[in-house]
């Protein structure tokens, strides 16, 4: 959950890598330029939606979200390759202090390589599809110690290749960026297009979408989720991919319950493309925008989120 900050487009795609493991839907390419997103065509959504999309909450506020809504919710958990893979609908994993070049160069026999193999084997043994993101919001650390966008892309591709070698075909690779990155011009190092690992390596275009309003990076504007996600959906459709919100939230406000209800309608309208949304229900921390209050605190907010979970025709945990 951050606003981005360095660097350059990717590396060549190895021809030995096979096509994406699973297509969540069949998409038809249409015609319309979207130059600002770094793509050349939009995709017309199919007439029928896929199975119900996941609705849930991020770990660290998940139990509170379940208690507050009184409903079963999907969970999005975070971990490191050196740890044990959590049991969750979506997992975001990184390599701790290792640089992206370290990950890209992980060789058989190294501790990092063995950890990634262990993760692949563990997730392979689980039933059903598991959404997995490697190193979320990399553009927010642009120019930092982890490396360049090219380094990130190489690391992402290496992780996918190791999982593929282990036969972990039940993993849905979910590229987790900030929604902000999809509104950033391609000439900016933080622009999403500069960090895209490539169609062969991504199943789901994920964006962390925050209505900052008057806190953190906000400028006082109240932004609906539909507006925040508009360029994300355009990018996903242009690349023939699913889209999701690994994190989404709004600053505490009397309008927040209606914001969540509006999000419900946005999900329904775009279920041809959207597959998952996890509310960021964590309390403020000193490290990340301590003036932002994302956690739901009243019955109106929880009822709005709960009503999405109770819409069993369209949503599931």
Task: Specify Rg, calculated over alpha carbons.
Answer: 18 Å
Strand order of the largest sheet: 3-4-5-6-7-8-9-10
Give the averaged pLDDT, no decimals.
86
What fraction of residues sit in β-strands? 15-25%
| CATH-scheme architecture | Alpha-Beta Barrel
Structural class: alpha/beta
The string of secondary-structure elements, in order, is EEEHEEHHEHEEHEHEHE
What is the count of distinct domains?
1
Helix content: 25-40%
* Number of contiguous helices: 7
First-last Cα distance: 22 Å
Biggest sheet character = 8 strands, parallel, barrel
Low-confidence stretches: 3-49
Q: In CATH terms, what is the fold-level topology?
A: TIM Barrel
- Can you identify the CATH class? Alpha Beta
Topology:
Layout: E1 28-29, E2 43-44, E3 53-58, H1 62-69, E4 74-80, E5 90-94, H2 100-104, H3 111-124, E6 130-134, H4 149-165, E7 171-178, E8 204-211, H5 225-238, E9 242-250, H6 256-269, E10 274-279, H7 299-309, E11 315-316
Parallel strand pairs: 3-4, 3-10, 3-11, 4-5, 5-6, 6-7, 7-8, 8-9, 9-10
Antiparallel strand pairs: 1-2
